[in-house]
Amino acid sequence: MTHPHPEPVTFDGQRLRIEDVVALSLRQRPVQLSTDIVFRRRIAKGAEFLDRLLAEDGVIYGVTTGYGDSCTVTIPPELVPELPHHLYAYHGCGAGRMLSPQETRAVLATRLTSLSQGMSGVSVGLLEQITRLLQHDVLPQIPAEGSVGASGDLTPLSYLAAVLCGEREVLFEGEVRPAAEVLQALGIQPLRLRPKEGLAIMNGTAVMTAMACLAWSRANYLCQLATRITAMNVLASAGNAHHFDEALFAVKPHAGQQLVARRIREDLASDRPSRNEQRLQDRYSLRCAPHVLGVLQDTLPFLRTLIENELNSANDNPIIDGEQERVLHGGHFYGGHIAFAMDSLKTTVANVADLLDRQLALLVDTRFNHGLPSNLSAAQGPRAAINHGLKAVQISVSAWTAEALKLTMPASVFSRSTECHNQDKVSMGTIAARDCLRVLELTEQVLAAMLVAARQGLNLRQDMDRNLQLSPALQAMQAALQAQIPLLVEDRALDKELLALVRGIQSEQWALYEA
Questions:
Q1: Which residue from 28, 121, 182, 513 has the fewest beta carbons nearer than 10 Å?
Q2: What are the residue numbers of the active site?
Q3: For the segment 445-491, what is each residue's pLDDT rounded down to a tens digit?
Q4: pTM for the whole structure
Q5: Hey, which CATH number is domain 9-204, 1.10.275.10, 3.20.20.190, 1.10.3720.10, 2.40.10.480?
Q6: CA angle at residue 268 from 266 to 274, to 5 degrees?
């Protein structure tokens, strides 16, 4: 149950977690910028320091010089105020789909988190403007493609910079409208960006990191649901519960693998072997499920650290240290950690799709499902001849799995020299993150199909074995699925049911395991 007055997410330079970004992306918590005097003074110091440097004719990359390879071009003092506008103007060349509302809110939250570190030389007014977009749910239309993930997510983030200044388009109240029109309607004054602010907005890893936060959250739930489905499939297949024995897993001490085995063991509420004494060992997709799911389970804490460190970093260039009055030129816009996290996550998730695809192949095949009807059809008598159960679903699962596996080619190894060889080594982190989200989507489709199969298979097995006892957890899960998915007796189109199940997965509909 959602708390009627959820705690706001406050941006004050303190560390945020993935869950904070996800909550903001779903509009589950309100947002506020800290009014703390110390925080606001720290932000202001960076902007004031830049003002003093400009007054003293200091040379500052991206403020009094051109960008990237054009850093040797000196900007005439009278044109310095125009430079931020030109940065977002010429980067307005994105392509592909627009980021979803959830992704866009995550981008806004992620960029605001970074700029709130107080190391980017921006004004408090800029942070307030991003906060307003989140509060009013004014969502810049951000194309997903066009970033190589070093020098940051320049092109996609140019759409945020432009909207803050009242340019380009936004999604507001379900409608795509000119940003200037929406800001005026809300009484929000468009910004005139100060020196360095265009660079501070765009020269960072906000798009890839936002996507990574959402991907991590989805993968975490997916791992738990795949664990529960596996337990259901062990029972439906008349499998051996002793494959998940505590003593067995004590001798291979991967913590995530042990956790998956414990969850399956508790779901089965039994360590007895199958009554089929001729079959001591189940096939790998059941017997080795903790070893496959355990890789994802063990990877998640490590990837959380990488993603949250990036989320809570100042990741533009140059870094403006207002306290020590230093301008530090570096490469914090490089998204290598996110690229690695997303390439790793998409591989472990695709392996889960492959695991469940193999479980389904066993369940529908009378040579391997130990007495269940072909394709898990519940049709009986003469009508069994014309009914096909989950035959086509198994084909679709195979297709979705194949596509997920195809996308596991790492994006991070495809660095290419860019921008007159200034950006000569790039991360491809945003491409890796988009790939990961697509792999998650495909794997969630596999899980949706497996929920149908597990519900069907368990029902059929219980009809065959009246003594089969379900643990309270599996009993509750089976009851929830039975209420949502009618038993498949006569052939019917399942697409709408599958789509509803995918939405259920993405909204974490089923309560699973306690931490």
A1: 28
A2: 61
A3: 999 999 999 999 999 999 999 889 899 999 999 999 999 999 999 99
A4: 0.95
A5: 1.10.275.10
A6: 140
